Amino acid sequence: AGRVRAGLATAPGDGMQGDALLGSAKAAALVAAPGETRVSGPSMYRLALGERSVVVADAALMRLFELLRRLAASPLPVLIHGETGAGKENAAWAVHHWSPRSAQPFVALNCAALPESLVEGELFGHERGAFSGADRARAGLLERASGGTLFLDEVAELSLPIQAKLLRALDQQVITRLGDSRERPVDLRVVAATHRVLADEVKAGRFRQDLFFRLSAAVVMLPPLRDRPRELPLLARAFLEDACARAGRPPLHLSAATMEVLGAHAWPGNVRELKNTVEYAVATSPGPVVEPSHLPESLRALPPPEPEAVRAEGGGTEAPRVFQNLAEELRTLERQRMVEALEATGGVQTRAAQLIGMPLRTFAFKLKQHRITPSRGRVAAGE
What we know:
Blueprint: E1 6-8, H1 18-31, E2 37-39, E3 46-49, E4 52-55, H2 59-72, E5 78-81, H3 88-98, E6 106-110, H4 116-124, E7 125-126, E8 138-139, H5 141-144, E9 149-153, H6 160-172, E10 174-175, E11 184-185, E12 189-194, H7 198-203, H8 209-215, E13 218-221, H9 231-247, E14 253-254, H10 256-264, H11 270-284, E15 289-290, H12 297-300, H13 326-344, H14 349-355, H15 360-369, E16 372-375, E17 378-381
Parallel strand pairs: 1-2, 5-12, 5-13, 6-9, 9-12, 14-15
Antiparallel strand pairs: 3-4, 7-8, 10-11, 16-17
């Protein structure tokens, strides 16, 4: 008995679904010492990356970070595909942290955050007098990242002329500042990220094919938060602890009802939206428990009734159109497509998941989330 390892997971802290709770308990048992009972929690899943850490609990994300660790040892450029707010900068930082360049600078630029007129000077630097307001020389980001890693977030937003200059700098490992004719050597690794499909941008003529090939020697796909259901409660608790610490207030707890609301949300803004939501809750909750009423209205609002073409009494005009909350509309559409796929496949979950391009594990989780009960030949969709 002294060699038995045990893991403990609790609701709502580790989630509200049986599969999520069982998975968390098993994971806790795996890291427990013989004779020890290990309690699941965000700290157990924190991956230390030097000055940063990330919560990695989902199997797909674990595989992705293992891939990043292997890629980090090589000099290959890495292209990260992922939705806005999914954590692309953390993935880029992991590549830098695990690389031989980790002691050198990590320099990040959000290419969508600067007007085109400033991007060239920001990337390549400028000499004094190169343009109005340039009262002194300034090194660009490529120079400052030399020896280390340059992270170009939303790289698809760069204009074609800037793309051409960037390609030359990466190919020849030299840059020329604005207002200067001298070439300056740079030695850096590039990690780029985008929420767009770069291959489609190339076909549309908005992104240079040669730069695409230069940046995409290694491509990784970062799954959105809605496809990482096991991480949602862990991330929520981690953000809650951090927000309380920054606010200097005692720890708060998420109620079961609050966790149900969080689990039902589609999270179009991904991890960033979740973090903002939790920080809002910490600011509005009197404590010690965060209830649904402390969440932003967009999460706790009930979906309005379906819009109908209702005629106003005594008039021939239609009533104003009723709009549905976007997150709820996406959730309704997702549920509808899952039901349709199950009906088309006679209730066979594997084939239904393939029809709509959803991982089977995610499909099974969302069946419970949407209260869909599949059976052979028909689907009972509970409300």
